[in-house]
Amino acid sequence: MVMKKYKKHHRKFKRYWRLILKSREDLDVSKWKRLRCFDSLTTEADIVNFLINLDDELKQTYLAYQDILYSFKHKDFELLKKTINNYKNGVSTYMKTSIKTLIEFLPFIRNTFNNEYHNGFIEGNNNFIKVIKRIAFGFRSFRRFKARIMICKGIFKLKKMINA
Question: What's the distance, Cα to Cα, between the start and end of the chain in Å?
Answer without folding.
Answer: 76
